[in-house]
Amino acid sequence: MYDLLTACPLFRGLTSDQIKALLESPDNYTVTRYLPGEQIARRDTAYSGLMIVLQGKVCGRMTDPHGKQLVVDTLEAPQLIAPAFLFGGYNRLPIDIVAETETQIMTLHRGFVFEMMQENVLILSNFIDIISNRANVWSKKIYFLSFKSLKQKVALYLLDHSSEVNPVVPIPDIREIAEYFEATRTSLTTVLDDLQKKHLINYDENNITVLNRTALNDLLK
């Protein structure tokens, strides 16, 4: 467990022995297992402990006004769940957290997290970095939502997930990526086909290769 936590953003820069020393008392945390599809936490419940995915994959879901379930985020081990909502005047989860696979969750009690940050400047620095990075990610998602056209959303996604050096974007099942765009599989395939005909991308069932970044950027204007 401690070797795994060396890859966790909160403990970045610490050895497994140092993490073990920090977590020596089991009174400071709990570890819980969940089956695929099982709810880990419900939206709007008090977030009294920092959850870390030790094993498996979880997703954050919310329900739109029409009752449709939307996947907001997906996290794999050893990532943190909703660290920005641990402290503050309104420390309640904004989404439902559900296990996608067999999952193991470590929950660090909030008071203990605060003590660790007081005693270890590296953990404090890591936590601030995590919050800042998450704020940056969410600002990009808000920007993403400002586009009404599916073609624009696909263009932005491809630009964010590729570069001049590495133009290839691995894609999951087409159904899963369609859900991400809140689109049907047919409409997403139509957009990808159109971009491919215009030689902006090339795609198959596993990857999308960006061929013309300038043209994709022009779609966002």
Defining traits:
elongated, four-stranded antiparallel beta sheet, about 220 residues, alpha+beta, 11 strands
Structural overview:
This protein is α+β, with helices and mostly antiparallel strands. It has 8 helices and 11 strands. It has helices at 2-5, 16-22, 110-119, 121-145, 150-160, 174-180, 185-197, 213-219; strands at 29-34, 39-41, 49-55, 57-63, 69-76, 80-81, 96-99, 103-109, 168-170, 201-203, 207-210. The strands form 3 sheets. A 4-stranded antiparallel sheet has the order 1-8-3-6. Helix 3 crosses helix 4 (121-145), helix 5 packs across helix 8 and helix 6 (174-180) packs across helix 7.
Largest sheet: 4 strands, antiparallel
Percent helix, as a range, is: 25-40%
Strand order of the largest sheet: 1-8-3-6
Number of helices: 8
Strand content: 15-25%
Shape: elongated
Average pLDDT over all residues:
87
How far is the N terminus from the C terminus? 47 Å
C-alpha Rg (nearest Å): 20 Å
Please give the number of β-strands: 11
Give unreliable regions as ranges. none
Structural class: alpha+beta
> Which series of helices and strands comes N to C?
HHEEEEEEEEHHHEHHEEH
